[in-house]
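Bug #77: duplicate submission created two jobs. Keeping one. Sequence:
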Amino acid sequence: MKKLSIFLFFIILVCFQVYPDLKTSEKEIVADRYFLSLNNEMKELLDEHVLPVKGEKRRLDKIVELIFDRSVVGFDYSSVRTYTASETFEKRTGNCLSYTAMFISMARYAGLRAKFQEVSDFLDWERRGNMIVFSTHINSVVEIGTRIYEVDFQYRSEKKFWNRKVVGDKRAKAHYFNNIGSEALLKKDYSLAEKLLRRSIDLDSSFSFVWSNLGVLFKAIKRVDEAEECFERAIILDTKNHTAKMNLAGLYESQGFKKKSDKLKDTIKKIMRMNPYYHFDLGLTEYNRQNYRDAIKNFKRAIKRDPKKSEFYKKLAAAYYKVGDLIKSKKYLKKGQKYAGSDKEKEKYQKKLEFIHIKLKQAESN
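Kept job's structure:
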């Protein structure tokens, strides 16, 4: 396997999120003072429908029921929003952290012992410009007697998580600032990003992920020594923070320290190969070298690791077109269109499909 010549940098978020339209000072006040506060509407709802219910398990069930009842709350999950508890209730949407904060605040008001829980065996990747966003997950647990109930609004299926850890409210708030700080970083608002990421560290200096993200920030603004220190700190705090190791290897490579980079990459080779973008970028390298057969192999490896990324299918279709296999090019264009994120993108796929259709008809007539 050829080594990747350009090493992308990774940031880590709890779910994916977009920075809301609030001034920084306002956002800090909301998060610090009201992260788990209930508004009057929430209290009235709980006073009327939950507090009269006898038995903790029945109150737990009632809260979950109310959240999903469209005639009452009607909450819609969205992976691209992080809000406080009351904001989530008001907007009726949010990501896993938003959802969990809202639920915990409601559960505690109803007298339940609800806590945040980090889930580390959740894997998802997304490209944002020249960076890769790695998504983790958070949910909640409720202690009733000797039993513990896990409440997870994003994954209401039979999916089971094994690597879980109950954390305190400060850690949850640190995730919050890590999220909005990382989004500011993605938008290249470096001053805001540093302020928010440092706030996350102030809340929990043992939070390995945020140190790695701060290192990515310092790398972006050419403060290389500080970036290296942050990546090393992240690894010391959590030797299983493979994202920090990938970032440190990338930093070494960007400085021309190939031996140091390769040595570190060798220690995380298995983890790197789990990342679909590792294979996708290998495919792009081969595609640009006009090694289309090798590109196809790597694009397929990327799809195997994440079969719902539209861009993987688009480049695979392009590679098949280059080798003259119009049928497979059409096949993968259709799959890419299925996972396209917008109507505009789907229209682009449709134009390519129509072009391939014409080419196939011409081939048949010949």
